[in-house]
Design brief:
Radius of gyration: 23 Å
Number of helices: 15
Number of strands: 14
CATH topology of one domain: Aspartate Aminotransferase, domain 2
Strand content: 15-25%
């Protein structure tokens, strides 16, 4: 499959044809075809036969392509997306929308006042300015475009979220990796990286993707001291991506409590209320946020006020509020159940927050194949790492969608760990 002898879209022989040609039983060939399908190398198209799966979609950014696990599988734990069954029902919120979408001026304030005030009241720190965005990545994109210039250096977590690295490289910015442990960014690694004279630092304060780590107040204090007491850190703008806030089981800790004049905090509602709502918020110093708002008015303008009104209803109506609280509790229970099941198989991991956890393996490729043969797909660890990493190989597992069968899944993961 990887030698080029079979091209994407080529049809494989039927089970019976190949069994006769090789002189083996049809069951042997059928089992081989099923293993290839579970590994994502071939796909069955019913009466059209089984064909070689195509290459990753070219329109995806580089690191997204590394995560593109197309093809059928029994259990896909590679996506990092929420369980659709745990998203709040939108019917009541949709019923509150006006009959027509309208605006009286293209120069109106971008946010509806009720949502703006609610977000400000619930922000994790005092905030000068706040604006609604089309989710966390949209906010990051607009912050990078407004604040960074070609050739700047930006500190990012390694492992970290692959699209952030892709986005920085798109702007001609050099990402510099900072190591992460169970409490967030490691101070020693940050101190070393600050010697590169970065312009900004991007971090995930909780439910870190991929590790599930959440920053503690003690760690935040140590990081803030580095950013205030070193000459290379005192001008660094901090950008926080709180992408799983409403479903995180840990309290949010923001460096804005220590550095209010240079922290931009992003809150996304994709994981909690639905990725397709495409809505989040950006808050921070007025001088920085207003630059983003002004630039956005020259393009997309604003986030749909109808979508803003949907979010307002979801954040204030008791029924969806209770549904999101239930989701938060359920995700925490699923993390605990898998953590215990893995411990029963001899694998001790720190308790993760959010949807994912970071599983060390002896060999990444061997682990992916081992799990594929068991009908399980996980995300390879490589795309989450910045450059060469001296750390052990890992895979990311989206445990948030696992509602049962934790013991058997943990057994398959344990077998993959051993290689």
């Amino acid at each position: 499959m990887t030698s080029g002898e079979l091209a994407p879209g080529d049809r494989l022989p039927t089970v019976r044809e190949l069994a006769v040609e090789l002189g083996v039983s049809p069951a042997t060939v059928s089992n081989a075809w099923q293993a290839l399908s579970r590994a994502g190398l071939v796909v069955s198209r019913g009466r059209s036969g089984t064909v070689v799966r195509g290459a990753p979609r070219d329109w995806l950014p580089q690191r997204y392509q590394g995560l593109d696990g197309s093809g059928e599988t029994r259990l896909d734990l590679s996506r990092g997306t929420p369980d659709p069954e745990l998203l709040p029902d939108l019917n009541a919120a949709l019923a509150t929308l006006p009959r027509r979408a309208s605006t009286t001026s293209y120069q109106e304030k971008p946010d509806i006042p009720e949502l703006h005030d609610l977000l400000r009241d619930r922000w994790p720190s005092r905030v000068e300015s706040l604006t609604v965005t089309n989710g966390a990545l949209d906010a990051l994109d607009r912050v990078f475009g407004a604040l960074l210039t070609f050739g700047d250096r930006v500190l990012v977590e390694s492992p970290g979220f692959p699209p952030i690295i892709d986005l920085l490289e798109h702007y001609g910015v050099e990402p510099v990796g900072v190591a992460v442990d169970a409490q967030g960014l490691r101070p020693d690694s940050l101190a070393s990286a600050l010697s590169r004279h970065p312009k900004a630092l991007v971090l995930q304060p909780r439910a870190h993707n991929p590790t599930g780590a959440s920053m503690t107040a003690e760690r935040a204090d140590a990081l803030a001291r580095l950013l205030t007491r070193t000459s290379s850190g005192e001008r660094v703008v901090v950008i926080e991506d709180d992408h799983s806030g409403e479903i995180s089981s840990r309290p949010v800790v923001t460096l804005a409590s220590w550095l209010p004049d240079r922290v931009l905090h992003i809150r996304s509602f994709a994981k909690s209320h639905g990725p397709d709502l495409r809505i989040g918020a950006l808050g921070g110093p007025r001088a920085l946020v207003d630059r983003v708002v002004a630039r956005r008015l020259l393009g997309a303008g604003w986030t749909s006020r109808m979508t803003q009104r949907i979010l307002l209803e979801l954040l204030t109506d008791p029924t969806p509020v209770a549904e999101v609280a239930h989701a938060r509790h359920t995700y925490a229970e699923r993390q605990r159940s898998m953590n215990l099941a893995l411990a029963g198989n001899g694998i001790e991991l720190p308790m993760a927050d959010g949807l994912n956890f970071w599983l060390p393996v002896r060999d990444e490729r061997a682990a992916l194949v081992s799990l594929a043969t068991a009908g399980i797909r996980v995300a390879p660890g490589g795309p989450f790492l910045l450059g060469h990493s001296p750390t052990a190989a890992h895979v990311r597992v989206t445990v948030g969608i696992v509602s049962d069968d934790h013991d058997s899944i943990a057994g398959a993961l344990a077998a993959a760990v051993a290689g």
